[in-house]
Structures are given as C-alpha cells and as structure tokens.
Amino acid sequence: MIDYDKLIAKKCREMKPSGIRKFFDLANAMEGVISLGVGEPDFQTPWNVRHAAITALEKGKTKYTANSGLSELRRAISAKTERDTGVHYDPDSEIIVTVGGSEGIDIAIRSLIDPGDEVLVVEPCFVCYSPIVSLCGGVPVPITTRAQDRFRLTAEQLKAAITPKTKVLILPFPNNPTGAVMEREDLEAVAEVLRGTDILVLTDEIYSALTYGIKHFSIIQLPGMRERTIYVNGFSKAYSMTGWRLGYICAPQPLVKQMLKIHQYGIMSSPTISQYAAIEALEECDADVEKMRREYDQRRRYLVNALNSIGLDCFEPQGAFYVFPSIKSTGLSSEEFCEKLLYEHSVAVVPGNAFGECGEGYIRISYAYSIAHIKTAVQRIKEFVG
Amino acid sequence: MDALLELLKSNARLSNEELGVMTGMTGKEVADKIAAYEKAGIIKGYTAVINDELADKNAVTAFIEVNVTPKADFGFDDIARTIMRFDEVDSVTLMSGSFDLAVTLSGSDYKEIALFVARRLSTLEGVVATKTHFVLKRFKESGLFMEDESADERGMVSP
Questions:
Q1: pLDDT tens by residue, A215-239
Q2: Where are the domains of chain A?
Q3: Nearest residue in B to A43, CA atom
Q4: Among A176, A251, B76, B81, which has the minimal tally of Cβ within 10 Å of its Cβ?
C-alpha cells in the first residue's frame, strides 16, 4: 500500500480544506434544504452574452488566444477600467485575462512572495488568500476588521501590523462576507501609510459593480497608488458569469511581465469562448448590470430589515450580495448555529469563521436569491431564533 | 421607471411594508404613492400571470388583425372602443403597418372564437377585413417564461 500522505508535499498536506466544504456536504446530503449559502449570482448571464459565445463557437473560435488574452478584450478591459476609475492601463503590457479573479489572485501572490514574506490579509475575507500565501512559504498576517468600524480597515490597524517583512496588503473590498466597502477617505488613510514603503497592494475588486447607495472607489484612483497596486476584477459577479471562469488583472508592466510567465506555464490562455462573450459583456451590458444591482439592493434592504426585526443584529452592508449578522445573542458558536439551523429548519447559511477566525459569532447570508426564496428562508430562521 | 412601479410589475403581491423596506420608504408612503398612481390611472389593476395551457386545457387565445375604415372626426377610436367593450376581448391596440387594430381574445374553445369573429366582429360597421391567428403555444408572457427553465443549478453552499 502506498502511503500517499507521505508523498504529498508538506505545504499541501498542511493546507486546511475550506470551512465551507463541510456545510456543502451536509446540505447536499439533505432533502428539502433551502439555501442562502452561495457566493454566486442567481441571475442568468445576459442573453446577448450567451449568444455572443454561441456565435463564437459557430465561427470556430476554439483555439488558444494570446497568453495575456484576446487583444480586443484587453482593449475593452482597459476602456472599462478607465471609464470606472479614470485610471489607464496599457492593454498591450499591463493587463492579463485570467481564469476568474481567482487565478489573478493566485499569480499575483505567487509572483511576489518568497518564503518568510509577510502578507497582510484583511479578515474576514474570501477563503483563498491565506492558503495561497502559505503555499508560497509566505506568512499570512490577519488584520481583523470590526463591526464598530463597519468592517473597514483602519490606518491604525494597518500600521500596527506592518513589520520589515511585510510585502503585500490584500485589500478585498467590497467584501465577501461582510458586505463592507471602503470609501475614498478610508482608502486615503490606508494609502498614506503605504506611500513611501515597498509594500504592494493586491486589491480584489470583484464586487466593484455591486455597491448600494455609494459609488465604488478604487485605491488605484489615489495618487501614488497605481504604481504599487495589482488590481483584480472579473466577470463572475457583475455579469453573472461565474461558470465562464474569466477575470483579469491590471498592474504596472514590470509586475505583469512576471505574472504572465506563471500564467503562460500554468494556464496558457484563458477560455477562448468566454473571452469572446466577455467582450460583449463589457461593451453592451451596462444596463443589465444596473438592473441586477437594483434588484440586489431591494433584496438587501429586505433582508437587513427582516434579520434585525427577528433579533439578529445586522451591520448594514453597502456592497457585494451578503449580509453578516451577529449571532452572539443566541449563545451559539457560528458552526453550532449553522448546523442546528440546517438540521432543525433546513436552511443552509455559512458560518462566519469560514472567512477567518474573527468571523466567529457571525454568519454569512447571501441574497443572491429571489425575494420569494429569501422570504421563506427568513421565516424559517425566525422560527429557529424566535 | 419608478422603482416602486418596477417592483409591482414583477410582483404585485408584496405588502406595502415589504415594498417600503425594499425601496427605502415607509409603508404609509408606499400606500400613498400607490393610491396616487391608481388615481392618475398609471396603475390600472393587479392581475396574475396564468399559464392558461395548464389552468384550462381547452382554453384558446387568438390574435386577430383587423382592417377598418376610419370614421371622419373619430378616426380609429370609435371602432376600437366598440370592439374593446366585448367581454371576450382581452386587448385592442392600434397598429402601424398592414392592418389597423390588433385584437386578442380568449375563449373556452376554437368554436367560440370563430363564432365571435364571424357574428360579432366581422359584422361591425367599419370592419373591412379580419385575419384570425390562433395561439399554438406561449413561450413568454409578461416577462415570464411559460416553461420553467432548468432549476437552480448552484450548489447549496459556496465561498
């Protein structure tokens, strides 16, 4: 018998599986579960985008593209980024089309981190940053955002976490799971700490299209920040294109040049059909995105109100499509709460600690569901909490 | 379009309180606004979108092109108003193009519609010609797919 564990690389063996996996398995094994647990939009990809993919397929656009992606798509990404932020990236040397935002995060971290380098990870956050940092031999250093700061990173927290080994700050806003955003003045304070250091920023703005009552602001818009920032965005959330696996990074040319090597050997080029569809999305779908955003906003208001009224204290999120209520009043841990809710009332949500230890005492509820669906689920949560 | 109207168009069964929470108003403000819309004739009514093919297997819907002779002074309005008063008629629309009025009507079977066209519609003064098209299958109605697309394919939980 082969002892596979002995053969597996230590760094991989020591990697913890995502805390979400367990709930995925539990929920999928049960009948009649109503879920508010997913991190992807419920809307169909706009039909014209799907149709563009069909057309591309019919025309036989099934070969590799340039490593960094179709030139036409990179031009569209450059134009879109400039439209949204006023910041220009050269489509020929400063943009890579990646396999989802995830690959962008992966190659950004891998291109920067040597063993022992410290990476500041603003938590709670999406699950992938720390494991990738660890895989590179880097040291993830969590910075815990707090409810009283509206889950925003403060300059004081940042300053306190910086050491001579700090290489990168990962800035995930609008935030999954809290729904928090960083406004211009918040980012200005952070930028002030970083200017004059050699610390780079990896800004994951995959939810940038989904903010409510507030216009998204990117750290790249601040003086001196474009040159020290890797900007990650993608098509999954804004255009409801999760399964198309398409995202992009924008960064200064010397960084892109290095990341492109990893992308080239690991991926070759991102899915061609998806790239053709993405051009259509960028050029023709502003109205579709706005329509989805408005609907998310209505659900968000509904859900926040409903949760507060059943006694789950709820920070008002201004971005993404999650709410992050505190369940401390129930006396249960996040996992206990989620397990009981699942077993006793057949509702699946995600325990907050799946997004970092500091998420303990919270749960993540997604509103990427129809109002009717949310209403039913909230009724069950009410029976559970009440 | 106003967010409240958009919401009502997609789901008219939400309570005023729910509509208020979703649009940033109080329930009272929603009630007042809806009352004003009703008074102004902007909201004409509240109906359900029903898949007739499932609700009543024999039900038939027809789309009729009607050519009419417009009357002096009244144009097409007079004849349109006459046609719309028949209970069987669901909608009457003045069209540009090769015919004048588009009339939809529903009946409990084909014969009922045929008789309506032959006895009531064609015989009206001013109706020059009619062309009746029976609906064979409805795919989309009021923005809703009549056949359910595949169910939610997302997993129960994902990051």
A1: 999 999 999 999 999 999 999 999 9
A2: 4-45+287-385, 47-284
A3: B152
A4: B81
